[in-house]
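Lab manual, section 2.4: Encoding a predicted structure.

Procedure: take the sequence of the chain (112 residues), apply the prediction step described in section 2.3, and record the output as structure tokens. A sample record is shown.
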Amino acid sequence: MPEKELVAASSRPIVLSVLSRGESYGYAIIAEVKKLSGGSLEYTEGMLYPVLHRLEREGLIKSRWDESETGRKRKYYRLCRDGERALENERQQWLGVHNTLAALWGLKPCRI
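Recorded output:
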């Protein structure tokens, strides 16, 4: 399991990336991150919802309430245009960090 600080630092680009695939809701985002990370990243509601609320305040995502298939109310989140631009900026920054570490560790860098 990655250090808490690394998980927190990566939450913004991860959530934006998940939402770039389409509209989703909290539990589905948590499940998707767990699946994509092979179980090494396990978000909790207490960690995810503050990130979603911050991204919404920043105008990067929008939310709407709707009924799920079971009839329960569920809040769905989607990426906005500003969120798409923010995601591209995050991607560039993270690839820069990755490539620096790759160079230090003798690994192949990713294309930016």
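Check your result against the sample. The helical segments are 4-20, 26-36, 45-57, 81-105.
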